[in-house]
Amino acid sequence: MSAVLPSDKPRPRLDGPEQPFWAGLKDRQIRVQRCDHCGRHRFPASRYCPHCHGPHSHWDAVGGEGEVESFCIFHKAYFPGFAAETPYAVIQVRLDSGVRFFSNLAGGADNAEIQIGMRVRAVFEDVDDALTLLKFRTAEAKP
Amino acid sequence: MAKAQAAVVGVGTTAYGRLPDYDAYDLGMWALTEALGDAGLKFEDIDGVIINRIPDYQRFCEIAGIDPQYVTITPGHGRFAAICIDTAISLVASGRCKTVALVYGNNGRSAGASYGGPEDSYGSGANGLWFPYGMTSPGAFHALMMRRHMGLYGTTPEQIAQVSMTFRNHAALNPQAVMREPFNLDTYLDARMICDPLRLLDYCLINDGGVAIIITAAERARDFPKPPVYLRGAALQTVFADSMFPPEDFWRGAMKKVTDRSFGDAGLSHADMSALMIYDNFTPTVLFSLEGCGYCGEGESGPFVAEGHLALGAKFPTNTSGGHLSESYMQGWALNVEAVRQLRGECGERQVSEAANVHYCAAAPVCSSIVYSRDAS
Fold it and tell me: Between A and B, how many CB-CB pairs are < 8 A?
């Protein structure tokens, strides 16, 4: 029996500016904004491009491979839904497209395995019918 | 080298700790009353007011019974201490105001303020985007930076501990400090992990308290009861682009800029500094600041602090009050007051002998550097 129901954890706002991102995870894609003017990817969402200030963009799927830039291990549970999982790790990931995310390693990974610079690959973790989270698992080194 | 344009002529602080009978307005009033007394001024002498953290500027001035010409209010983020001081310098140097009062009141401890969790909006405010992953709190942001620093440069927990232990030793000499019991390395290492690699003793102390500072033009500064402390240099540099994630350079680039600009204006260099006041929301910030300001080389802050340079009596006595880690988290304000008190020779057992210049700095998405001096030039 699981002590923690997924519903005890904080949920993101699915109908906000990042709606296409969350919908994309359902489709097993990482969709982020891409500027129609300069071509740079960005996340989270903004109407204007922070790089070239252009107003037009579209949501574009990017590859799921990247690297762990850093990590930290929470011993304190700031959210009750995480209390049963402490100590749990948060990883800072940079995808090869340059887009960055905070995330976790998917199911059952040992905190001691995490290393800065290690290669990771996206995992789409279904929480329920409405929500899928972008998580990661260790991947082979870049050929 | 330019002559200083502004000076601090009054400082005031409340007690720090648990003060449940005082709200943020009361704490601001208490501090302001102290600062005006220190400066030999009356409330009606204030013609500029900059409020920080106190919820409402109109209510504060109403309580103080004052009608300044100029007023503004700033968010309760620690990076704003230097911004407010920088603005006050401009106001008095330009002649737009004669006497500016900076007033800070923080009832965070009694009001149950905390960082991390559903209400946390540290940084660029991601609207809870990372909460589903359990990512929250400024402490975690600094833990991510510290972990990377450890990976890149081999910085160790034993080195980080020196920062926290040294400031506690200083606090032991400061009657106003909230935490005054010195601790050893074992105690540091045994302290509970909050967000690995950061332990309880790497975090600042949320408390109630208030601080006020009175700034006037340098040419008027000799007309006050206490010796003036001149603002010889001040500089700000924001680092906002892509700031949802930790900066790759640990804010070194921006810290170098503000140090160069403020030291340039002051005509002073590192060796001229009698003491340092380094914004210490978390221990890693001290390491990043030492590197950014150039007190040690890139990646060398771990060994540098382990050599003991931050202790009273050493080369760069730092946070002689105990800082945010041991005196109280007054979001930069109390560190600026400590700079003034050191230069006036008011620090009792923790006094730095013949203090001539003190450097305040903060490494954050707004990097800042202020040089305080006994002499105007």
Answer: 98
Active-site entry in B25, B203, B329, B360: B329
pLDDT (tens digit per residue) in B320-365: 999 999 999 999 999 999 999 999 999 999 999 999 999 999 999 9
- Residue A19 at interface with chain B, using a CB cutoff of 8 Å: no
Q: Show residues of chain B in contact with A73, CB under 8 Å.
A: 193, 195-196
Instruction: Find the domain containing B37 and state its range.
Output: 6-111+205-373
The domain A63-143 is classified under which CATH number: 2.60.290, 1.20.120, 2.40.50, 1.10.8? Answer: 2.40.50
Q: Could you read off the pLDDT of B223-264 as tens digits, one per residue?
A: 999 999 999 999 999 999 989 999 999 999 999 999 999 999
Q: What is the DSSP string of B160-197?
A: HHHHHHHHHHHHTT-TT-S------HHHHHHSPEEEET
Give how many domains chain B has, as a whole number: 1
The single residue of B104, B115, B188, B279 carrying the catalytic annotation is B279
Q: A75–B194: do the CB atoms touch at under 8 Å?
A: yes
The residue of chain A nearest to residue B126, with distances taken between CA atoms, is A44
pTM value? 0.96
**Closest Cα to residue B32, out of B18, B52, B17, B2?**
B52
- Token pair, residue B371, equals 């040089």
Domain boundaries, chain A: 14-62, 63-143
Residues pairing with B180 in the sheet: none
B124 lies in some domain:
no
Phi and psi for B281 in degrees, rounded to 5? -65, -35
